[in-house]
Amino acid sequence: MRAHQIMTRSVISVTPDTSIVEAANIMLKRHVSGLTVVDDTGKLVGVVSEGDFIRRSEIGTGRKRGRWLRFILGPGKSASDFVHEHGRKVSEVMTDSPVTITEDTALAEIVDLMERNNVKRLPVVRGDKVVGIVSRANLLQAVAGLARDVPDPTADDDHIRSRIIDTMEKNDWCPFGLNVIVRDGIVHLSGVITEERARQAAIVATENVEGVKKVHDHLCWVDTISGVYLNSPEDDELAKAS
User: Fold this and answer.
1) Longest CA pairwise span in the chain (Å)
2) What is the pLDDT of residues 162-192, one digit of tens each?
3) Is 124 helix (H, G, I), strand (E, B) or coil?
4) CB under 8 Å to 107, separation ≥6 — which residues?
């Protein structure tokens, strides 16, 4: 399998000038753990994630180093820490020059890059523009949904996947972070919904795509105010049976 067969296509991005508070609120509202950072032309310039908000002065978690360690590290490191802990814009806390992949990158290479660079997500680029993102969650979904004796996705499966995503993204009920995996015409839907009626709409939209044999629902319902979430009924049944 390759990146384009499991990646999330609807990528949520911010700009370098987006405030820290706004970026954090976007992550909470969209139930995502990372955001790509793009400039005014749409070019990828960085990635910001939950880890970038751990060491912050507002919550008293700034680094506290002894005098001897500060001497060894030098003033440059202390200055960088200060910017990261007190910065107000995404550009001041983001990881610039992020590791990227293309749509044709094989899953084995993706896993190797994640482990080697200690990252949880990799932007998928076409040229210098972001066209998707592959996270550890995408890999987990691929393993959980497709660990069976079924051939690798075919060209037809890729076409089915594209048609499903195109159909979904035209509607305002489209799940956040929609991910679609197709193998031998069997579809696995995952993502976040904030309205339960969107679940049935997503399933019906998928069933109406030619070539779809069966739909598995892994859509997670999230309350945007409290952050409470519920797994899909299908996943709950599987959990009870295991």
Assistant:
1) 67
2) 999 999 999 999 998 898 989 889 999 998 8
3) strand
4) 1, 2, 3, 6, 139, 142
